[in-house]
Design goal:
By secondary structure, the protein is mainly alpha-helical. The protein has five helices and three strands. Helix 1 (8-28) runs antiparallel to helix 2, helix 3 runs antiparallel to helix 4 and helix 4 (97-141) packs antiparallel against helix 5 (145-174).
Length: 175
């Protein structure tokens, strides 16, 4: 969909094409076909990797498809966790059990709020990708180039939100 052509579907199609060309090279003994297949497979692998890359920085998600504004709960939740941890640390240092408990609760509430934002971005990202793909196909078939571009933008924004949320969720799972 995007101009960088880092579509996951395209990478799968290229990988299948590579496998077919490699099989043909093996049957015919043509080393040039085998080498072209290996090159095509490497390109497909690179496209797949780029298609799945994403991160989230300062309230936005970034991917090969662009930049998208995150759900505000993600950043607010992260901030609550930071403040909660600071309060908990101060409570530990000063022996103030109330401050320590307040910090622990704020940290937990921040975690829940950030997770809510991540799930929101993940769900809306998947939905926007599907709507963008389907709408773009229909608009393309009907020859409506502007609508097709609009749907491609919707797809790309959805992909960016999805990849940013996935990146954050994976970081937290591996921490």
């Amino acid at each position: 969909m995007s101009s960088e052509n880092t579509s996951t579907l395209q990478s799968y199609a290229d990988s299948a094409s590579s496998a077919a060309q490699s099989a043909l090279g093996s049957i015919t003994g043509n080393t040039a076909d085998k080498q072209q297949a290996a090159n095509k497979q490497s390109e497909a692998d690179a496209k797949d990797t780029a298609s799945h890359a994403g991160t989230s920085i300062g309230g936005v998600s970034l991917s090969s498809s662009g930049v998208a504004q995150n759900d505000p709960n993600r950043q607010a939740g992260s901030w609550d966790q930071t403040l909660g941890s600071a309060k908990e640390t101060m409570g530990n240092l000063t022996g103030a059990e109330g401050l320590k408990q307040q910090g622990r609760e704020q940290n937990q509430q921040g975690q829940a709020r950030e997770a809510q934002g991540q799930l929101s971005d993940l769900g809306s990202g998947v939905a926007d990708r599907a709507k963008g793909t389907m709408g773009g196909a229909v608009a393309g078939a009907m020859g409506n180039e502007q609508a097709q571009k609009d749907y491609e933008a919707q797809h790309d924004t959805g992909k960016t939100l999805q990849r940013g949320a996935e990146s954050d969720i994976n970081k937290q799972a591996n921490a």
